[in-house]
């Protein structure tokens, strides 16, 4: 989706959120529990309304403690690994 093409309908009407931390009201956040907050980069297809979101790798100083996404998710009891 970050290539500009929708994986569901192949449309190129794909838009990316320009949210920035600390003040934008449209920034999407991922709450991992334990107070760990990660910014989300989001894409939406205007043709079929498919949405994709990507979590940023590190917590931001504004909220976090510089934890990695892997550390925050695997140590939180709010997330369970999906069995393949
Ligand atoms: Zn689409």
Please outline the major beta sheet: 4 strands, antiparallel
* Relative strand content: 25-35%
Q: Which radius of gyration do the C-alpha atoms yield?
A: 15 Å
- Unreliable stretches, pLDDT < 50, 5 or more residues? none
Number of strand segments:
4
Summarize the topology.
Elements: E1 14-16, E2 28-31, E3 37-45, E4 51-55, H1 69-75
Antiparallel strand pairs: 1-3, 2-3, 3-4
Bound molecules: zinc ion.
Characterization of the model:
- There is one protein chain.
- The protein is mainly beta and 84 residues long.
- It has one domain (1-64).
- It is 8% helix and 25% strand.
- It is built from one helix and four strands.
- Strands 1, 2, 3 and 4 form a four-stranded antiparallel β-sheet that branches.
- A hairpin with a 5-residue loop joins strand 3 and strand 4.
- The mean pLDDT is 80.
- It binds zinc ion.
Short description:
With 84 residues, the chain is mainly beta.
Give a quick set of tags describing it.
84 residues, mainly beta, 4-stranded antiparallel beta sheet, elongated, binds zinc ion
């Amino acid at each position: 989706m970050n290539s500009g093409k929708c994986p569901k309908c192949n449309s190129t009407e794909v838009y990316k959120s320009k949210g920035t931390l600390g003040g934008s009201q449209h920034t999407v956040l991922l709450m991992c529990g334990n107070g760990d907050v990660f910014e989300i980069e989001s894409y939406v297809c205007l043709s079929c309304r498919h949405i994709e979101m990507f979590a940023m790798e590190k917590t931001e100083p504004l909220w976090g403690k510089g934890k990695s996404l892997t550390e925050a998710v695997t140590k939180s009891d709010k997330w369970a690994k999906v069995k393949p």
